[in-house]
Amino acid sequence: MMRCAMCGYEFDAAGLACHTSCPLGSQCMVICCPHCGYSTVNPARSRLLTWVERWIKRPTPRSAPPTAQRRLSLLDLAPGQEGRVVALGDSEPEQLLHLSDYGLMLGAPVRLCQRRPTPIIQVGETELALDAALARDVYVERLD
């Protein structure tokens, strides 16, 4: 059942046939309200709407590790060990932009100073205290 956005009339869209003057005929994606004639796109037949719904509902894949043995979470490093950032997890874009202001971005060398009580890392000459959840979402490969 569909509800007309103009007049509020409820009708069964499956039972409606396209206008005889429509050049698209059976391929037409427009539904006209039988009460007021208001035209709207049939969401069940629109390829664009179907694609957008699938794209929005699709889970965001995490980037695959460059080499499974070398990719670690930042908290997997021992204090004092160094690594190079290879991926940043599901953090908010604003948060990633803020971290990049301090130099924490893809390819940046980092050193874990301490894990507890708060993870502290060194990026260049800057020491940053990170939230543990954020530190788990930063992936590095160990520099040997």
SSE order and pairing:
Blueprint: E1 2-3, E2 10-11, E3 30-32, E4 39-41, H1 47-57, E5 71-73, E6 82-88, H2 93-101, E7 109-114, E8 120-123, E9 126-129, H3 132-136, E10 138-142
Antiparallel strand pairs: 1-2, 3-4, 5-10, 6-7, 6-10, 7-8, 8-9
Structural class: alpha+beta
Shape: rod-shaped
Integer tally of domains: 2
Q: Residue-averaged pLDDT, rounded?
A: 79
Quickly count the helices.
Answer: 3
Mind summarizing the main beta sheet? 6 strands, antiparallel
The number of distinct β-strands equals 10
Q: Span from first to last CA?
A: 64 Å
Helix content: 10-25%
Q: Assembly type of the shown chains?
A: single chain
Low-confidence stretches: 64-69
CATH level 1 name of the largest domain: Mainly Beta
Strand order of the largest sheet: 5-10-6-7-8-9
Structural write-up:
- The protein is α+β, with helices and mostly antiparallel strands.
- It folds into two domains: 2-57, no CATH class; 71-142, Ferrous iron transport protein A (FeoA) (SH3 type barrels, Roll).
- It contains three helices and ten strands.
- The strands form three sheets. Strands 5-10-6-7-8-9 form a six-stranded antiparallel sheet. It has a two-stranded antiparallel sheet with strand order 1-2. The chain has a two-stranded antiparallel ribbon with strand order 3-4.
